[in-house]
Amino acid sequence: MYYRFGKVFHFISVLIFTFSFLYIYASLSEIVAYQLDENGGFLKSVPKETFFYSGIILFIILNVIMIVPGKMIENGSTVSLKRIFPKGEYLTDVMIAWIYSFGGIINISLMIMALFVHSINNQNEISSNQFSFFFYLIPVLLVIWIGGLFWILVQKFKSVQSNSLL
């Protein structure tokens, strides 16, 4: 049951990233700066198409890396996965939910970074100084989710250990 919430969160994060990334791409100039010097000039920049394609490729690669293990656990692709994560078990659902929700957190992080690049290039809309909160939010979310993974693994180890004693 819990894994459905993770799937919905991941799907919503994919939609939000897609719409925001397309909006950002449409509003950028032909040269996209991703680092400014102290005077506000472009220190490092790339063509608009390179920014778009590299962003989409990074998004697809990270999502495939995150979702394939979740699908393998969900479908019980191998005998060892079926044994470790049996269908219908509470910790299996929690693990699948964690995997999908972590993919959603990665998507939100990518969206925040794309919005930061947008703010660098369109200073009149959003100042890049207003993103300090979001840059602290990304590592905090990642640490919380990694902590959740360790909690799930500890619970799973306890469950396996108690079953082996019987």
**Head-to-tail CA distance between termini:** 28 Å
The total count of helices amounts to 5
Q: What is the element string, with H for helices and E for strands? A: HEEHHHH
Which segments are poorly predicted (pLDDT under 50) over 5 or more consecutive residues? none
**Rg over CA atoms:** 20 Å
Overall mean pLDDT stands at 84
Assembly of the depicted chains? single chain
Strand content range: 5-15%
For the largest beta-sheet, the strand count, sense and barrel status come to: 2 strands, antiparallel
- Percent of residues in helices comes to over 70%
Identify the overall geometry.
elongated
Number of domains: 1
Strand order of the largest sheet: 1-2
Query: Helix- and strand-based class?
Result: mainly alpha
Give the beta-strand count.
2
Protein name: DNA topoisomerase IV
Keywords: Membrane, Transmembrane, Transmembrane helix
Transmembrane segments: 7-26, 51-69, 90-113, 133-154
